[in-house]
Design goal:
The protein is of the alpha/beta class and 167 residues long. It has one domain: Rossmann fold, CATH 3.40.50.11900. It contains 9 helices and 4 strands, in the order αβαβααααβααβα. α2 runs parallel beside α9 and α6 packs across α8.
């Protein structure tokens, strides 16, 4: 097994050649994960971060108080931060992730059943534009594959890859 830091240093990733580093925002349609993996490999795409599900909130856990500790841990869970009132700090986390992971672009999976996440699209897109990271909005249903066809997903992603290539 290679040292991960060394692989990053020499630019060796999970796909070869790596062409695009994308942020994933929210849940990709689970019924299309294999299909999305195939397209990613075809186009040299790596999903490098999903700040909505990987950035834990701040706070300390205290093992001497198990019930309070459990409540605090739930409150610190990444998805809780995105379900609370939004402010500049939340948007800064997204732009910081884009810069830290050197994202070339972002794919926002706009799940039709989640009004809260869809209401944030413009805020996120504007914040990412400020750090020069384009964002594709992919309308989907996380569970039901009938909502967005494979052909439609492929077309939108390939158009997005063309946009990234031209940058």
């Amino acid at each position: 097994m290679k040292n991960l830091a060394r692989a990053v240093e020499i630019g060796e990733g999970v796909v070869s050649p790596e062409r695009f580093r994308l942020m994933s925002l929210f849940l990709a349609p689970v019924s299309r994960l294999g299909f999305l993996e195939k397209i990613s490999r075809e186009h040299g795409v790596v999903s490098v971060i999903d700040p909505f599900f990987t950035c834990w909130g701040e706070g300390r856990l205290d093992s001497t108080s198990p019930l309070e500790n459990l409540a605090r841990k739930i409150y610190m869970a990444p998805e809780m931060a995105w379900c609370s009132p939004w402010d500049e700090k939340a948007l800064k986390k997204i732009t910081d992730c884009a810069e830290q992971y050197k994202a070339d672009g972002a794919v926002y999976y706009a799940h039709i059943g989640c009004g809260h996440s869809c209401a944030m699209i413009k805020l996120v897109k504007d914040a990412l534009n400020e750090v020069d990271v384009p964002m594709l909005i992919l309308d989907c249903d996380v569970i039901d594959p009938r909502f967005t066809s494979k052909a439609e997903i492929r077309e939108k992603l390939e158009q997005f890859f063309e946009l990234l290539e031209d940058r």
